[in-house]
Specification:
two-stranded parallel ribbon, about 300 residues, eight-stranded mixed sheet, single chain, 8 helices
């Protein structure tokens, strides 16, 4: 059987035979063998002509085709996101009424777990660069698809206020999944932007609103933070944080309409209780910090 693939590259057909035949047989085969994969013929370039292959034995075919095709690097950059591939994507029962999906990055040997919450409107695979690095360091990462994601099928059914509660429910379900799958290993919470706020809540923040602390979480790492959100992030929001925190941000980390001063992202570190709270500010880094698009 053909293994599942995120991307399939059908071999190019020369313009002459394509006009005569009316179709590219490699493309049609790819569509049937891998119906769920993305087909991307633009990633291949023909570098030279070849002779008709139908009458050639295997060895001459291989010799004639060697060096006849190359990757189009400019197109590869545009298609880079299709390579973002977690180890697995599993269904996650959030409540009796709602199920979502959860991306899982799992190493061969698990030394710890990260519960990851994405930025508003985003989705787990967008952070593959960072989450794969954590996996390679021995951390299993679980990241639910939140209801505010542009990829969530029923996004329009949830208001911003409802989405906040559903995010917390997602992370509670993700935490239960991790505890059952990898019992006894340390657990950290991670996030980007709005997801950092959720992760901080798992670490004890927002106790004046509700008891949101996840007792399994022993540390929080956030890429950027949502800044100061009127009515939600107040001077006491982070006063109850009970675990070590690291915030990674940039001096150009601005979000039009929300964050006009990059220093606002340091608010969790500045207002949380002293002790084991730190920030790393990267020069020249914009709001995409944490998404894998900054090198």
């Amino acid at each position: 059987p053909v293994q599942p693939a995120a991307l399939v590259l059908p071999m190019l057909l020369r313009e002459g035979p394509l006009k005569v035949r009316g179709y590219n047989q490699a493309l049609e085969l790819a569509r049937r063998l891998a119906p769920a994969a993305r087909l991307e013929a633009r990633l291949l370039l023909r570098t030279r002509g070849t002779v008709p292959q139908s009458g050639l034995p295997r060895a001459p075919r291989l010799s004639d085709l060697r060096g006849a095709f190359a990757l189009a690097l400019s197109s590869l950059a545009m298609a880079q996101s299709v390579f973002a591939a977690p180890t697995a994507t599993v269904p996650l029962q959030v409540s009796p009424e709602r199920t979502t999906t959860m991306a899982v990055w799992e190493p061969a040997q698990v030394r710890g777990v990260v519960l990851f919450s994405t930025g508003h409107g985003s989705w787990p695979e967008r952070y593959d660069g960072v989450l794969s690095a954590w996996r390679d360091a021995g951390f299993a990462v679980v990241a639910p698809l939140h209801v505010d994601s542009v990829k969530y099928p029923e996004r329009e059914k949830f208001s911003m206020q409802q989405g906040f509660g559903e995010r917390l429910a997602d992370m509670k379900a993700a935490s239960a999944y991790a505890a059952a799958r990898w019992p006894g290993v340390p657990v950290a919470a991670g996030g980007h932007s709005y997801g950092t706020l959720i992760s901080l809540a798992l670490g004890g923040a927002m106790a004046d609103m509700a008891p949101l602390r996840d007792p399994s979480v022993v540390a929080v790492m956030g890429y950027s933070s949502p800044g100061r959100i009127p009515g939600l992030v107040t001077p006491t929001t982070y006063a109850s944080v009970a675990v070590p925190v690291l915030i990674v941000t940039g001096d150009q980390d601005l979000v039009p309409g929300f964050v006009s001063d990059a220093k606002d992202h340091l608010y969790p570190v500045e207002t949380a209780p002293a002790g084991h709270k730190a920030a790393l500010v990267l020069a020249g880094t914009p709001s995409s910090v944490g998404t894998g698009r900054n090198r």
